[in-house]
Design brief:
Layout (H helix, E strand, L loop, with lengths): L2 E5 L2 E4 L4 E8 L6 E7 L6 E6 L5 E3 L7 E6 L4 E6 L8 E8 L13 E2 L3 E6 L1
Length: 122
């Protein structure tokens, strides 16, 4: 049984940093992982993704500020978030798909965590 568990969210002031963690378990073979976020009243959107060959994708809004990485030995996917802005306030979700390549479509991911809240104040 596959499982994703996010942690590391919290409240910070603009310009601050947070590191989100996604503990993964039960996954075998090649998988792509991604971080999505959803603000109140908005659609869920992709933030950062990494495929099984460690190629990365970043949304334009976070490029240069966020970094996604994997620790294979610990089965954890991280999202380092720097220079945070109030617009980054959202629930952040970790997602996985049993494919080589990552995607920005929520429909392409079949495993999701419950999310961790990030709040950035001005």
């Amino acid at each position: 049984q596959v499982q994703l568990v996010e942690s590391g969210g919290g409240s910070v002031q603009a310009g601050g940093s947070l590191r989100l963690s996604c503990a993964t378990s039960g996954f075998t073979g090649s998988n792509a992982f991604a971080w999505f976020r959803q603000a109140p009243g908005k659609e869920r959107e992709g933030v950062a993704a990494v495929d099984s060959d460690d190629s990365f994708m970043y949304a334009t809004a976070v490029k240069g500020r966020f970094t996604i990485s994997k620790d294979i030995s610990k089965d954890i996917v991280y999202l380092q978030m720097n220079s945070l802005k109030p617009d980054d306030t959202a629930m952040y979700y970790c997602a996985a798909r049993p494919k080589l390549l990552c995607s920005w479509s929520t429909n392409d991911y079949n495993s999701w965590g419950l999310g961790t809240q990030v709040t950035v104040s001005s």
